[in-house]
Please model this.
Amino acid sequence: MKNKKLFKPLLIMVVMMGFCIHTRAQQNKLVVRMARLVIDSAQLDAYRAALQEHAETAVRVEPGVLNLYAVYEKNDPTQVTVFEIYASEEAYKSHLRSAHFIKYKTATRQMVKSLELIETVPIALATKMPHSNG
Amino acid sequence: MKNKKLFKPLLIMVVMMGFCIHTRAQQNKLVVRMARLVIDSAQLDAYRAALQEHAETAVRVEPGVLNLYAVYEKNDPTQVTVFEIYASEEAYKSHLRSAHFIKYKTATRQMVKSLELIETVPIALATKMPHSNG
Model:
């Protein structure tokens, strides 16, 4: 009888521990990257439109593309940074093979003067941003 | 009678339009910034711990601090980037006056070798990251 009474709380504990371990494992798998680009100043509007469409599409249709923030610098609009979070290494590789990524790369080839891809390690990923493709 | 039937859908339309205008106005007020820092290589662990605590605290306790992503570069761990989103200019100013920001600035003064603050304009802010202070 005593054992029976303990079963339910123990089961709940085991499920909760499993959930915590799962969440931690998912976080550890995250791939966090930055891209720094310099854009041809004569093609800024076209480049921004292509990048915006690409980022929104990728986050909307690819389950493993969690975050694509893209900004340009106020003091030098040719300087663009993209802050990228993927659920895993496989999700990142799958993104590079996607039709929308290949379309974006092809369309912007003549607009990008330089591209630096930076692998990073997160220190903090604190957010309460509304979920959005925009 | 005809007018009465139209009232409900028209009301819904007006409320929805109001919501869209409100959302757009909120988005236009966003302040999106980056900080690029170079950290003393002998104090990396202490610096990361202080920045992590600061970022998590700010997003948790300040309603207008929407996003603080902080990363270091795999190839050069002294290079740190913080990607910051505030709800408005007032939220950013209020953040600079907060007790936890002043504590972080004071604690890390001797760890930071250089600091570049960059005002940016968003091209895309696409995310479906789980909300987290971590």
Remarks:
- Residues 27 and 55 of chain B are 22 Å apart (CA to CA).
- The beta strands of chain B are 31-39, 65-73, 76-86, 112-127.
- The two ends of chain B are 57 Å apart (CA to CA).
- Chain B touches chain A at residues 27, 32, 34, 48, 51-52, 55-56, 58-60, 66-75, 77, 80-81, 83, 85, 118-129, 131-134 (CB under 8 Å).
